[in-house]
Description:
Number of helices: 2
Radius of gyration: 14 Å
Strand order of the largest sheet: 2-1-3-4
Distance between the termini: 40 Å
CATH topology: Glutaredoxin
Helix content: 10-25%
Number of strands: 4
CATH architecture: 3-Layer(aba) Sandwich
Bound molecules: FE2/S2 (inorganic) cluster
Number of domains: 1
Order of helices and strands: EHEEEH
CATH class: Alpha Beta
Structural class: alpha+beta
Amino acid sequence: MPKPTYHILVCSNTRPPGHPKPSCGSQGAGQLLMAFSMGLMERGIPPGQILVTGSACLGPCEQGPTVVVYPDGTWYSKVKETDIPAILDEHIGKGTPVARLNPNAIWEG
Ligand code: FES
């Protein structure tokens, strides 16, 4: 099996009702995971070439849903389902993080 080109981590953490911190799972992370998977299939990406994995909390919960793309370590915050095509076409397809989504802004203060 060849090494994957990219690994997309989608925070899918959930918290119980009434918890003081928000969670990506309650903000649509499940739909994002499905949209990434469907988007890869629609683009004819062979299984295993790009991995999409739900993860536990990645840290910046207030800025969720959080998505991180490796190996370049690009962080996307407040990701919406409508952002997925751009991430797949521009970042995964062309290797250029999607500037209009302010990648890595969470770490720039
Ligand atoms: S719950 Fe998603 S970053 Fe913490």
